[in-house]
Every structure is written in structure tokens, then in C-alpha cells.
Specification:
8-stranded antiparallel beta sheet, 4-stranded antiparallel beta sheet
Length: 335
């Protein structure tokens, strides 16, 4: 019997109580019920970053040594049906993500309370925490919760080009049946970001013998170290409905590398939402690092060491300010 947790996930930034302007809740959807809508199972296999070719130095400051899991179930049959209905309803808000994705919807957790409650579910959070082997929390920026990708308008166009994610940790869920679709699979490069960049510099993409395409049925996911694993949504061979949902997480240890490219979102997300979420995320990271300094900094005459630690504690804030003011830029990918 599934037991619903009473406490929430580890504290990061709480989901906002007030909706941004231009958003309102759907008023006729079911209430998220973990007893009915979840069916959490364990993955059979977990691939590590070292398995992909990353060195110990590459891995040392990252959130987790885990790279990607084999598919495992998250939603029950009823939950998968609701997820599909919500995704279809949110499709009307789709937009492009630069030249990388033709049709995607973000901010759906400001419209669907069912999707929001799935994406911040403490049951799912704890389940993924065990798979990653670290304490995690739903991403402090709600634009990274419940991201939806849809089929492009033309076949032979990648749903999402080869890339690594703009956030550290996530899962990719099949909303429609990818296992029996005419193409459009979720594909993973069994190599490093450096290797993918070298291939791209030569005008090449990952060779097929180094690509894994797990079968994903509705409500099944792969847990992903999104910042470190190069992946894509492959082209369809014929026109068909094709939907995936991506939900983001962070390590609650702020000493780890931030592993985000939030600046890519300037051309993607609503600015009224983005600037505030980004600022809160940076402030949360800095608060954790500054608290560590308050608790742990020893007396020393070495001014440079103290100044460097203080500078590092607020590095995320300074980077956010610099990138906000720098403005729009092209979205990174490997094609």
C-alpha cells in the first residue's frame, strides 16, 4: 500500500502563493492524489558519470556521481491518463525555445494544480533522492517544474536537438507512448559533454553505436543528471502526437556546483516570472553558503583566504546580476 508523506520536501524556495500576472488555475481538473496517481518503482540499472567517461576531477563538485537510470514507473495508469489530459490542455501555451525546440510549454505549474502537486510531490522527491544518492528538492525555479515538449510541425525535425540541460537534475517522463511511437525516442549519448562538443565542432552528432534509446511508456521516467548527460528528443518518422514532461531538482547542498545555464532562459521564459525566480534561486544558494561561513569560518590573519570565501559565498548572486544585465543570447546545443 502506498503511504502518503505528511512532511514536504527539504526546504529550498517554497512554491509561490501568488500567481504571476497572466496565469490562472484550471478550475475543472482532478486533485492530485498520491494514492491513486502514483505507482513508484525502482530502476533496474543506474549508469554513473564515470561510466560515461568523466574523470574524478570532473565529478568532484557535481551534485551526484549518478548519470542516468534505466526506465522506472512513477505514475499509475490513472495518473498517466490525467498527465496526458493536462499536457494536451497546456499545449495551447506552447512556444519555441530558440532554434532548439519548436514546441514546448513552460510555467504549466502556474496553471495546473495537479501538475504542480505532482512536480513538488514529497513522495516522488524522496524516491528520486534515493536513486541519486543525495538529498534533493524540487527546483527552486518553478519554470523548471513540469516542462513539456511536443512533436514538431514537420517530421525529420528533432523534437529537441542534442544538448545538456539548463538545470542540474531532472527526470524525463513519457506522457505519450514513446516505446511504440514512429520515432521520436528519448536518446542518450554514452559519452561526455567534451566529446559531444568535439563532434559538433566537426559538424557531427553522436554515432549511433554510442546512443541509448530506452523504451518509455506513459508514466515511466528516466532519472537524469541533466547538466552532465548529452541527450535529445529524436525526430519522428511520421506525424504523431509525441509529448514528454521534464521535472527539475537540485541538491540541497549549496556547496556543490550550481550546474545551471539560467541565462539561456532569457529568450524562453516570461520575464516577469524569470527575473524573480532567478533572483530567489541565487539568494537561496547564497544564503546557504553565507550560513556556512557564519557557522564555520575560523579566526585567521589571512585576509585573502577570508575574502575569497566570502566572494565564493555570493558568487551565484553576482553571476545572476551579470547575466541578467547582459540580456538575450542564443540557446546552447550541439547541432
Amino acid at each position: 500500500m502506498h503511504t502518503t508523506k505528511e512532511s514536504g520536501p527539504p526546504a529550498a524556495v517554497p512554491f509561490p502563493d501568488v500567481l504571476p500576472s497572466g496565469y490562472q488555475w484550471f478550475d475543472d481538473e482532478p486533485v492530485f492524489d498520491p494514492e491513486r496517481h502514483l505507482a513508484l518503482e525502482e530502476p533496474e540499472e543506474v549508469t554513473t558519470l564515470k561510466d560515461l567517461g568523466y574523470s574524478d576531477a570532473d565529478i568532484a563538485d557535481k551534485a551526484t556521481p549518478v548519470a542516468v537510470s534505466s526506465p522506472f514507473r512513477v505514475l499509475s495508469d490513472e495518473g498517466a491518463e490525467v498527465m496526458l489530459a493536462v499536457a494536451r490542455r497546456l499545449k495551447q501555451y506552447h512556444r519555441p525555445a530558440g532554434d532548439r525546440i519548436e514546441r514546448m510549454t513552460r510555467g504549466g505549474c502556474y496553471r495546473s494544480q495537479w501538475l504542480r502537486d505532482l512536480c513538488i510531490s514529497p513522495d516522488v522527491n524522496d524516491h528520486l533522492s534515493k536513486i541519486y544518492g543525495i538529498d534533493i528538492a524540487p527546483h527552486p525555479m518553478p519554470v523548471h517544474l513540469g516542462h513539456l515538449n511536443y512533436e514538431p510541425s514537420a517530421i525529420q525535425t528533432a523534437v529537441d536537438k542534442w544538448h545538456h540541460d539548463t538545470l542540474p537534475l531532472d527526470y524525463v517522463m513519457a506522457v505519450t507512448d514513446l516505446a511504440n511511437a514512429p520515432g521520436g525516442g528519448f536518446e542518450i549519448f554514452l559519452g561526455t559533454k567534451g566529446e559531444a562538443a568535439e563532434l559538433a565542432a566537426k559538424g557531427e552528432t553522436p554515432p549511433r553505436d554510442r546512443v541509448r534509446a530506452p523504451d518509455l511508456r506513459p508514466g515511466y521516467v528516466v532519472a537524469l543528471h541533466g547538466d552532465m548527460v548529452v541527450h535529445r528528443g529524436a525526430p519522428l518518422a511520421e506525424q504523431a502526437e509525441r509529448i514528454t514532461m521534464v521535472n527539475g531538482y537540485v541538491s540541497i547542498d549549496p556547496s556543490k556546483d550550481e550546474q545551471s545555464r539560467t541565462k539561456d532562459l532569457i529568450v524562453v521564459d516570461d520575464h516577469e516570472v524569470l527575473w524573480t525566480e532567478w533572483a530567489k534561486f541565487a539568494a537561496w544558494r547564497a544564503r546557504g553558503r553565507l550560513t556556512h561561513l557564519i557557522d564555520q569560518l575560523d579566526f585567521t590573519a589571512d585576509m585573502e583566504t577570508v575574502a575569497a570565501q566570502l566572494e565564493e559565498a555570493v558568487a551565484d548572486v553576482n553571476q545572476a546580476v551579470t547575466e541578467m544585465r547582459a540580456g538575450r543570447q542564443e540557446i546552447d546545443h550541439y547541432e
